[in-house]
Amino acid sequence: MTEEDTCSWNIVYPCYIDKSKSCSGGRKVAAQYTVDNPTVDEIKLVCDRLELKCLIEREKSHPKDWPPKGRVRVYLPSNTNTSNSQVITKLQLLRKVGSMIPMLKSRQELPSTSKTKPLIAGVGEPTLSKSHKGKKGKK
Q1: All domains of the chain, ordered by start, with CATH?
Q2: Overall pTM surpassing 0.85 (yes/no)
């Protein structure tokens, strides 16, 4: 696709759904639809699941949040009669993306075995050796 084809597509920056951002910092949705540190790859995965055309632009950045680079261009069909999509507006898209990112496999916490097993005394604990540095004693 060329730039002329995608210039009218909606742009989604990760800061639009970032929980740590304020509305003046670039967030566009209510706190219930936000996630911690969203990435452009996660946004693209959700758009793919919603069967929306999307394109990642990694070299672009948001004016208020420039260090994390990247944005996603998403095509929302204008004719809703022919679309099977659940998303019609950009706000609906942002809410849907924010609610679906926590369900991604990359966001699911794997059970950790080291936290569930109690340590047996003497096994697996670091031992501290007492060192007798300094003066031995005065006579």
Answers
A1: 3-108 (3.30.56.30)
A2: no
